[in-house]
Amino acid sequence: MAEILAGKGKSKYKIHITGKSLPKSEINRQIGLNNKVLIVTDSGIPKTYIKELRKVIKNRSVNVITLSQGEKSKSFSSYQKILNKLLDLKFDRSDKLIALGGGVVGDITGFCAATYLRGIEYIQIPTSLLAQVDSSVGGKTAINAKQGKNLIGSFYNPKFVLISTHFLKTLPENEYKSGLGEVIKYGFIGNKKLKKIIETNAKKIIIRDEKILKLIIEESIKTKSNIVTKDEKETGIRAILNFGHTFGHAIEAYNGFKNITHGAAITLGMVIASKISYFEGHIKDYQLDNVINTISSLGLNTDHKKYKYSHLKKYITSDKKVADGKINLVLIDKKFNAFKTSKFNHKNIIKALS
Ligand SMILES: NC(=O)c1ccc[n+]([C@@H]2O[C@H](COP(=O)([O-])OP(=O)(O)OC[C@H]3O[C@@H](n4cnc5c(N)ncnc54)[C@H](O)[C@@H]3O)[C@@H](O)[C@H]2O)c1
Ligand SMILES: [Zn+2]
Known about the structure:
354 residues, alpha/beta, Rossmann fold, Dehydroquinate synthase-like, alpha domain, 2 domains, 14 helices, 13 strands, binds nicotinamide-adenine-dinucleotide
């Protein structure tokens, strides 16, 4: 069991990482015995996990709402459905929401918690690797609009995050690999210990060895919580978490957000950003090889040649990270630290994508 503290001041919260079943006394302490509980989950989450959680919670009033699985549930209509349920159940400010699922469930539950009665507490129990190492930490909550993803939301920290690696046993392979994309990212943007662990334990990571999973999740979260605690509202250093994301988002958008997972897209984005780092003289050729070899050692694709500059151009220039008409890129340096810059030769983007 490991514990990490994230957030500052009043919005400080504990992240608990375990390989075993759910820690009963901690969950009940976080909920408070007299409070009502609504568990939000989705249809892809094995029913046994819901049963297991219900068994652990001692409170008399525990309800469950199950959204259909997939990104389309991060919608106005699911938001309304959850809020109506809270109103019908007469939730007050001391009652708790629990997100049991991946990033979709976590994001919408957080947004409901942020806005119901101007804010009630919520607990994140992430079940996908991506949610465990990324979306459950940092307090970004959101739903999608037809105009774009995550356009409606708020920064609102959870009360508690409970991560159990035992959920990962049932996670489909492509979703597992998607989460690994973000794990690798933390290794490339500054966590040297994590980078080394990945380089020396690829086989164990692939077979989801429990011990190694706990270690890479812990290191990933340390990096994320460190950065987001310094920059809660994304005005500075948080930008380095977007390593690989300018090109990754462009690849996702070019695919119409179908047929490629987020992690697979940002992995290709990291290869492209590393090539630009190399062309710009920030890293050596063997370091570029190291990026590509590390990614492929975990069974992730590094070949981005089907995405040409002409395909991605319009998405790169419309990315959120374009400020004052200048494209900002997150690149890496020789010491494997990431940095944001708008100073680069645009031709190197074209070169990296040719
Ligand atoms: N808030 C943030 O900071 C942040 C960061 C990154 C991503 N996100 C958001 O997270 C979402 C993506 O999250 P995701 O990749 O977890 O996708 P997801 O929530 O759609 O989960 C992926 C799929 O795996 C299934 N699943 C989850 N856990 C499982 C388990 N243990 N066993 C079997 N199946 C399981 C789900 O039912 C779903 O079908 C996106 O909406 C993205 O915008 C948010
Ligand atoms: Zn990401």
